[in-house]
Design a protein that fits this description.
Largest sheet: none
CATH superfamily: Tetratricopeptide repeat domain
CATH topology: Serine Threonine Protein Phosphatase 5, Tetratricopeptide repeat
Distance between the termini: 55 Å
Shape: globular
Structural class: mainly alpha
Helix content: over 70%
Order of helices and strands: HHHHHHHH
Oligomer: single chain
């Protein structure tokens, strides 16, 4: 086996291991979670107040669940909340629990754009760049949101 073939095999093994680690982590909501089922039903209807209420109930039962903090905040933002302190509190809590939570990095970056803090949004884009070795939708979505925000500011 030549060096080039060995490198290709190693790259494939590493990418498969990274994919497996990414899909099985704590940032992947459990399909058997009834709270997630209720949240999904509300979010599909774009009933963000109900979705936030479901996640608030979920947090009361499991305050150490990064996904719950992340989805609670996402629902708050979608429902039009003006309480950005609450939004920042829960996104930061999600990242305290799971510093590699890609969704929380994306959504926190978007929240910073809502208050005009592009530099902080770019910090989270940088974090996603490190977490998403082969690229990911969270990185692409935040990068697009930053570009759109900067284009509007001109």
């Amino acid at each position: 086996m030549n060096l080039k073939s060995a490198l290709v095999i190693i790259a494939l093994l590493v990418s498969n291991a990274a994919f497996a680690a990414d899909t099985a982590g704590s940032s992947s909501p459990s399909r058997a979670d009834p709270m997630m089922d209720r949240y999904s039903a509300a979010s599909e209807r774009q009933d963000w107040k109900t979705a936030a209420s479901v996640m608030q109930d979920a947090l009361a039962k499991d305050p150490s669940n990064a996904d719950y903090h992340n989805l609670y905040d996402y629902s708050l933002r979608k429902s039009g909340t003006q309480d950005m302190d609450l939004v920042f509190k829960h996104y930061n809590e999600a990242l305290r629990i799971d510093p590699k939570h890609k969704g929380a990095h994306e959504y926190l970056g978007e929240a910073y754009l809502l208050v005009g803090n592009v530099a902080k949004a770019k910090e989270h884009l940088g974090a996603l760049d490190k977490l998403c070795f082969f690229g990911c939708s969270e990185y692409s979505d935040l990068k697009r949101a930053i570009s759109e925000h900067e284009a509007k500011a001109k």
